[in-house]
Amino acid sequence: MLALPAGKVVQVDDISVVIVRFLAEGGFSHVYLVDLEIEDQNIKTRQAVLKQIHLKDALALEKAKNEIDVMKQLTGHKNIIEYFASQIIELEDGNPYNYEVLILMEYGSGGEVVDMMNKRMNNRMKEHEILDIFADVCEAVLWMHSSKPPILHRDLKVENLLVSEQGVYKLCDFGSATTLSSLDSIIVEGKIEALAEDINRQTTLQYRAPELVDVSRRMLISEKIDVWALGILLYKLCYYITPFEENSEANILQVSYTFPKIPHYSPYLQQLISSILRANPDDRPNVEQLKKRVDEMRISPPVPAKKKRKFFGFSWS
C-alpha cells in the first residue's frame, strides 16, 4: 500500500483535505497530517489527522464501521480524540483491496505520551505529572463506560494516549472498542474458542485482565477489564515497563508482580495500583471510584495511616 504524496487533495465526505506529511502506519492503515482546504465552521482547527485503511473482506469492513460508530458516539469529550468525518469507498475490480475507509479526526499536536516518556528516560515524570495524565485517561474511560450501553475500549495502553496543543491528554484508537451486549452474544455455550480468538485479536497481552487470559474459567467479563488495563497503564507511566513482562499469562493469573525500587514513588501511588490489580473483578474499583480517588490524591497526598484503612472499600496497610 503506497503512501499518499504531500500536496494530494483527498475528499472525506464533504470535507476536502490536503496531505501535509505521512505520520505512521500499522497493519493495513496509513496515518497522515492534513490541512483542511476550506475552513469548516464545525471544525475549530485547520489541521487534522487522516486515517486511511485498505480492507479485503466484509468482516474487516464491519470492524472499521464499528470504529467509526464508536468515535461518533464518544466525540465531544475533552479527553477523547474528536471525530470529524469519514467515508467508505468500494474499490474497483483489479485492486488488491475491496474497500478503502477514510477517517478524519483531531490532531494531537502535542505528540504522543510514549514519545514524551522516551524523551525523559533520565528525568522521569514526577508523581503529580503521572496523576495528571492518569486523571485525564480516567475521565475518558468514565465517559465510555457511562454510555448507553457501556462501551469498553479493550486496548487501553500508553501508546494510545495523545496530547493536545493545550496540554490535555486524550485517548485514541477505538478499533477494539465494543459494547458489553456484543461480548455477551459471544459468551455462550460453545463459543469460548470464538471469544478467545476475539480477545487475541483485539487486546494486548500485557494489559489483559485475568478473566481475559483464561476464558475457560468463565469469569464475568465486564467494564472491569478496562479498569485492570488502567492499572497496568498507571504502572507503566511510573516504571516504563508493565508488571507482567515475563511469563505473562501465568503471572497475570496469579497477579504476581513487584514494584521496582527506582524511580521512587509514594506508597500511596503503589497502593492505588495494587487496589486495581486484583484477580477478582469484583474487588477492583469501578472507574468512577478510581477517578474520585485520583482527584483526592491530586489535591493533597493522603495522610499516613497507623493502622489498616479502607481503600475503595477494601483494606490495605
Summarize the topology:
Blueprint: E1 9-12, E2 15-26, E3 29-36, E4 47-55, H1 58-74, E5 83-90, E6 99-105, E7 111-112, H2 113-119, H3 127-145, E8 151-152, E9 161-163, E10 169-171, E11 178-179, H4 180-186, H5 192-202, H6 210-213, H7 224-239, H8 248-254, H9 267-276, H10 287-299, E12 309-311, E13 314-316
Antiparallel strand pairs: 1-2, 2-3, 3-4, 4-6, 5-6, 7-9, 8-11, 9-10, 12-13
Helix pairs in contact: 3-7, 3-10, 7-9
Written account of the structure:
The protein is of the alpha+beta class. The protein has helices at residues 58-74, 113-119, 127-145, 180-186, 192-202, 210-213, 224-239, 248-254, 267-276, 287-299, and strands at 9-12, 15-26, 29-36, 47-55, 83-90, 99-105, 111-112, 151-152, 161-163, 169-171, 178-179, 309-311, 314-316. The protein folds into 2 domains: 10-105, Phosphorylase Kinase, domain 1; 111-310, Transferase(Phosphotransferase) domain 1 (Transferase(Phosphotransferase), domain 1). It has 10 helices and 13 strands. Strands 1-2-3-4-6-5 form a 6-stranded antiparallel sheet, with helices on one face. The chain has a 3-stranded antiparallel sheet with strand order 7-9-10. Strands 8-11 form a two-stranded antiparallel sheet. The model has no long low-confidence stretch (mean pLDDT 89). It holds the Pfam family Pkinase. InterPro entries: Kinase-like_dom_sf (IPR011009), Prot_kinase_dom (IPR000719), Ser/Thr_kinase_AS (IPR008271).
